[in-house]
Amino acid sequence: MILPIYTYGNAVLRKEAQDITPDYPELQTLIANMFETMDASDGIGLAAPQVGLDIRVVVIDIDVLSEDYPEYKGFRRAYINPHILEYDENSEKKTMEEGCLSLPGIHENVKRPTRIHVRYQDENFVEHDEWVEGYLARVMQHEFDHLEGTVFVDRISPMRKQMIRGKLKDLLQGRFRCAYRTKIPRK
């Protein structure tokens, strides 16, 4: 089932998400719905707060980038209770343009470390503790930020944020167009 994407201004996007346990009701259905929603929205990542749930679940599918990044061929995973343990401050910091399904029509350059240390559980609640680098590290940082109540525009300069203030205001008021179902903030 395709779920509506909660857009900028919805309170759930600013809440810190909670860890879940293996007995979370209908988790596999939720993960399948999140993948279906992400695919229908042409996204490469989706966090549970973006579908209105303040829980620590993220889905990522970067197979679409495998022409440029062959190492991601067939890469489609769910992350349960993910946490970034540390950023490799010695790694290169790279600036790239980011967008977000919760902020349709807004794209901005964001500087992020290229290597991070993460801990998460897979769909079977098997624990993983690993260093991740490259483009996957960027996608994880973007999606895992949602679990901390952060959106990518929080990571741009105050001047850039001032320059897109009108677009952010339009989002808050539901004045935008996109090709997928959304849930705008209540007034």
What does this protein structure show overall?
A five-stranded antiparallel beta sheet has the order 2-3-4-7-8. The protein has 187 residues and is α+β, with helices and mostly antiparallel strands. The chain is 21% helix and 28% strand.
What gap, in angstroms, lies between the N and C termini?
27 Å
Report low-confidence residues grouped into runs of 5 or more. none
Mean pLDDT: 97
Classify the beta-strand content into a percent band.
Answer: 25-35%
Strand order of the largest sheet: 2-3-4-7-8
Helix tally?
A: 4
Global outline: globular
Helix content: 10-25%
Radius of gyration: 16 Å
Q: What structural category arises from helix and sheet content?
A: alpha+beta
Helix-strand layout with pairing:
Elements: E1 5-6, H1 27-40, E2 45-47, E3 57-61, E4 76-87, E5 93-99, E6 107-113, E7 115-121, E8 127-133, H2 135-146, H3 158-163, H4 165-172, E9 182-183
Parallel strand pairs: 1-9
Antiparallel strand pairs: 2-3, 3-4, 4-7, 5-6, 7-8
